Amino acid sequence: MYIGNHLSASKGYAAMGRAAVKLGANTFAFFTRNPRGGKAKEIDAADVEAYLRIAEEQQFGTLVAHAPYTMNLCAAKEDVRNFSREIFADDLRRMEYTPGNYYNFHPGAHVGQGAEEGIRLIAEAINEALWAEQTTTVLLETMAGKGTEVGRTFEELSAVMERVTLSDKLGVCFDTCHVWDAGYDIANRLDEVLEEFDRVIGLERLRAVHFNDSMNPCGAHKDRHAKIGEGCIGMDALRRVALHPLLAGKPFILETPNDDEGYRREIALVRSWE
Ligand code: FE
Ligand code: FE
Ligand code: ZN
Questions:
Q1: What is the CATH number of domain 2-272?
Q2: Are strands 206-211 and 149-150 parallel, antiparallel or unpaired?
Q3: pLDDT tens across 67-83, in order?
Q4: Residues within 5 Å of ion ligand 1, judged at the Cβ atom
């Protein structure tokens, strides 16, 4: 099983690799740049080399990098959209230093333009950024449906992907808190939800899992993460998700409200279910 948590990228790749090992993780997530800010640190090739050695030694699974929250490919304001496209392109370029990993992003918020226009703008931006030789797979994250978020239904994610030419470069990151908040009852109908995912998107697109409990009931559209077993999804249901054969081998990333010690315990807990 590949499991890890969100790590700070401030000290570079090798430091993240070492931090992951300390926590018992064999994959991890990180922000490609300040989650609220703009400019990214240029990548240090020696640091990447050192990281790649750790990853090989420890047999890490695929990493799940996370785009900054400020990136909104379907913003109403053109300058915000253009800035977001620059970030997207620059992040994809930087991802190639660590080939073959995942770059996960929130599809966007249409801010009143309507989901259809949002979907069109997101797909246009993706088409502009992807290139045939890239080794990174870009993941659209399932969203809770807070505000005007696009990606609150499997249909919306599918509508974006259908419009992308290099669609073999795309996948989906299945966030358990978000799908639950969006109204997919993974506590009582996990098999049906995965069947629906398969029908609408295709399970071969499901590449990674954000593994979180939720502070709110199914369909609340709130997006407040809880520790594993301390929220409304609950321990038993999350255990069934982690052990589901259709999700076996995918990187599971904890985004729960924890410190290092809490993450170490949650990783050990999930591993104890195997
Ligand atoms: Fe996210
Ligand atoms: Fe998430
Ligand atoms: Zn969230």
A1: 3.20.20.150
A2: unpaired
A3: 999 999 999 999 999 99
A4: 141
